[in-house]
Backbone:
């Protein structure tokens, strides 16, 4: 059920000088949100920012009895909205609309789930990892960043039984280079496994993962990152090029047609 509500800030965990995780009290969203869906957040009243911004549902926040009471968002302070989110304090209130968008589809019995994240592309994978653990799916996270300071929540994923494969561009944690290199190698070594890929991150990384999935004959879903004006399909600010059933190119609104897409259905330029 879609709701628009004032959401009190429960906590603001600053992970670094730029990254933070804000927990919001939003039980109606927490009860119905699914892995891969997002919320539209306006951190302050007034005209700056004028529009809300989209954030993947990072975690389902639970009370002491395990009941869902809110959601958290992973943010990187790079603009007006994200700098305001970085400065929020418990007790502040933001406007939150959600849950929105198309969620990830779950793997079938016997399939392995490989999640591929770059930077804040980690955002949709905590809820997905929890859901995968709930159905007993063997899961691996391929996680890349510029340096070890860009890799977060590793212990949480390990606690969920997720195998980690890490890469950093400077070699400070895991393999040196981009995460698609160990992914390509692992796909080549796992010919006998039924693997389903899930990816979120910068678009060049998504394109690379989509091409690797196609080359290795693997199913792949990607969560695209687009600037959205409304999140409801009205403004057409978040379109992505896609192929219709006849192979013709057209444009799809990522807020309602996605943000999760079959990687083979998108046009990677």
Residues:
């Amino acid at each position: 059920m879609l709701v628009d509500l004032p959401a009190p800030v429960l906590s603001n965990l600053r992970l670094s000088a730029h990254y933070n995780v804000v927990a919001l009290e939003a039980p109606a969203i927490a009860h119905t949100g699914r892995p891969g869906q997002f919320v539209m957040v306006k951190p302050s009243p007034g005209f700056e920012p004028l529009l809300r911004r989209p954030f993947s549902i990072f975690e389902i926040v639970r009370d002491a009895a395990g009941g869902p009471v809110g959601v958290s968002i992973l943010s990187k302070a790079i603009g007006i909205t994200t700098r305001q989110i970085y400065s929020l304090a418990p007790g502040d209130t933001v406007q939150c609309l959600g849950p929105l968008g198309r969620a990830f589809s779950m793997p079938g019995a016997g399939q392995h789930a490989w999640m591929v994240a770059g930077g804040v592309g980690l955002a949709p994978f905590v809820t997905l990892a929890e859901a995968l653990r709930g159905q007993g799916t063997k899961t691996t996270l391929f996680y890349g960043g510029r340096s070890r300071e860009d890799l977060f929540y590793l212990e949480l994923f390990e606690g969920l039984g997720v195998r980690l494969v890490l890469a950093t561009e400077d070699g400070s944690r895991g393999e040196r280079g981009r995460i698609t290199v160990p992914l390509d190698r692992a796909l080549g070594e796992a010919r006998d496994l039924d693997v389903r890929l899930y990816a979120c991150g910068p678009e060049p990384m998504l394109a690379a993962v989509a091409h690797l999935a196609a080359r290795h004959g693997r199913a792949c879903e990607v969560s695209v990152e687009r600037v959205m004006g409304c999140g409801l399909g009205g403004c057409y600010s978040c379109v992505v090029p896609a192929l219709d059933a006849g192979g013709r190119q057209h444009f799809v609104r990522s807020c309602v047609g996605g943000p999760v897409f079959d990687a083979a259905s998108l046009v990677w330029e």
